[in-house]
Amino acid sequence: MAGPLAPERVPDTTTDTEFEVDRPWVTIVWDDPVNLMTYVTFVLQELFGYDEATATELMLQVHHEGKAIVSSGPRERMEHDTNRLHAYGLWATYQRDA
Predict the structure, then answer these.
(1) Phi and psi at residue 46, in whole multiples of 5°?
(2) Can you give the pLDDT at residue 5?
(3) How far apart, in Å, are the Cα atoms of 23 and each of 18, 28, 47, 74, 82?
(4) pTM of the model
(5) pLDDT of residue 17
(6) Which of 29, 40, 69, 70 is placed for a possible disulfide with 59 were both Cys, Cβ 3.0 to 4.6 Å?
(7) Which residue from 25, 29, 26 is spatially nearest to 92, judged by alpha carbons?
(8) 37-48 and 75-87 helices cross at what angle (nearest 10)?
């Protein structure tokens, strides 16, 4: 009769992605060839309550850099924000903050 078996060693498969829980989600507005800059500024003010200066700064970031983060928080809220931007005809996505 054999003695007791040693417990099986399980390799540590923990990855950096498992620790992404702490990283917030963000909503990104992308540059598009359709919407006027004044319209993008209006939408940012309307949906997020930004003052005109902040909305204009974000719009210019979209225009010059191709994108801007317009909100951050829990995934569900970022998905909701993205859907609201789509309803206004803007190109938007959400993702984990880098």
Answers:
(1) -65, -45
(2) 57
(3) 11, 15, 23, 9, 18
(4) 0.78
(5) 52
(6) 40
(7) 29
(8) 140
- Domain containing 83: what range? 33-92
* pLDDT (average), residues 19-41: 91
Cβ neighbours for 46, distance < 8 A, ≥ 6 positions apart: 88
SS3 26: strand
Give per-residue pLDDT as tens, 37-56: 999 999 999 999 999 999 99
Q: What is the pLDDT of residue 6?
A: 54
Evaluate whether residue 9 is within a structural domain.
no
* Count of domains observed in the chain: 1
- Whether 56 is in a domain gets the answer yes
In a domain? residue 53: yes
CATH number of 41's domain = 3.30.1390.10
